Amino acid sequence: MMSTPQHADMDQFPVVNNQLQVGGLSLTELAARAGSTPFYVYDRQLISERVRNLRQQLPPAIHLHYAMKANPMPAVVQHLAAQTDGLDVASLGELRVALDTGTAPQNISFAGPGKSQQDLTAAITAGVIINMESMGELERITRIANQTGRRPRVAIRVNPDFELKTSGMKMGGGPKPFGVDAEQVPAMLEQVFARELDFQGFHIFSGSQNLKAEAIIEAQTNTFELAQRLSQHLPGPLGWLNIGGGLGIPYFPGEERLSLQPIADNLQNLLHQYRDSFGGSEVVMELGRYLVAEAGLYVCEVIDRKESRGEVFIVTNGGLHHHLAASGNFGQVIRKNYPVCVGNRVSPLSSEAQEVVSIVGPLCTPLDILASKVMLPNMQPGDLVAVYQSGAYGLTASPLGFLSQPAPVELLC
Ligand SMILES: *Cc1c(COP(=O)(O)O)cnc(C)c1O
């Protein structure tokens, strides 16, 4: 018999008295502590463990940065700022939070197309590294430098001449709004060195949510090779090389956790192979999702249960407006379920008490689905639905204003 694909084991949170626990509190207690449902809860200990494990496996020379857009909750950023080597921001709003943590500006980099005059002025005044995404941006930065007498820290974000294979979201290769095409970089470098700019290095990021170690290894190998080629156009050695993030986590049935060891081994080999070129360079890996996603739950409360033509619908007070990704509307081609459970009653009380249900939100749109036809313990109003893998690209990537429902609370426990 063919077995249907299953979700990877969601064993990161303990289950005590049949309730999920985060930071020593049951979900029922957490709902009381939050004061309302729905809420997001992030586990600080799991985040720290993730950083520790990465550090143990990655070569010590690799600097670890947190890409804030995965989860910009200030408390989460503060927690990670204390354990990583720097922060990566993609807006002025994120930059403010990053600077509030006390992270030194030379350890903060600012990427993203379409940086405004205000964005650039703030970044230059603060002294963070600006990852330049175009020639136009170089011109705007130069004008601000001339007006203010400051010497901005800049890097070039390179749109590589290769693609990250099997990535969930491609960010480089082919025509892209991100970065400067690799073939245009030598000409841009001439301009950079003709001006009063403090050139740091290259930022080469090819894609997000990759679960294939071989594909990541290939992309990182290509990244070092490309950086080496581009470095030949520099007057001296490369100071800084940001090789991007993109490590994936399992969301859907059949997906498994990434094995880090081959990736770490390959990085060690690359650092050795290119030691003459990059031996004195700061090599940075900037991770968003991989640091926080598995440490977060989204929790909502059952409001109603109803049957329609033979199917059971569990209607909750949370959904797409808080968690677009779990509803299947953030980059998915075919909708698949995130792992979910009844957080206040993880296992059924008896074997008959399981049923196939669809969990939906309160919005008047058929897109507002949290889980479609899943087998779960029998649920009644007041029960708590927990969505795993919700610590990254959750609230921050959701259309909070849609249907004017209340916002969820966020907790870091
Ligand atoms: C989004 C982003 C990241 C983080 O990607 P993850 O897949 O969350 O690790 C890193 N760098 C840049 C420039 C980004 O835009």
Short overview:
With 413 residues, this protein is α/β, with parallel strands linked by helices. The protein is 28% helix and 25% strand.
Question: Can you describe what's shown?
Answer:
α6 (135-148) links the parallel β8 (129-132) and β9 (153-159). The protein is elongated. With 413 residues, the chain is α/β, with parallel strands linked by helices. The strands form four sheets. Strands 4, 16, 17, 18, 19, 20, 21 and 22 form an eight-stranded mixed beta sheet that branches. The longest helix has 19 residues, at 213-231. Helices cover 28% and strands 25% of the residues. The protein is built from twelve helices and 22 strands. Pyridoxal-5'-phosphate is lined by residues 67, 69-70, 88, 90, 111, 205, 208-209, 244-246, 286-290.
List segments where confidence is low: pLDDT < 50 over at least 5 consecutive residues: none
Q: Alpha-carbon distance between the termini?
A: 43 Å
State the helix count: 12
Compute the average pLDDT: 95
| Structural class estimated from helices and strands | alpha/beta
What percent of the residues sit in helical stretches (DSSP H or I)?
25-40%
What binds here, in terms of ligands, is: pyridoxal-5'-phosphate
Measured by DSSP, the beta-strand proportion falls in 25-35%
Number of strands: 22
Overall form: elongated
Oligomerization = single chain
List keywords for this structure.
single chain, 413 residues, alpha/beta, 8-stranded mixed β-sheet, 8-stranded parallel barrel, 12 helices, 22 strands, 28% helix, elongated, binds pyridoxal-5'-phosphate
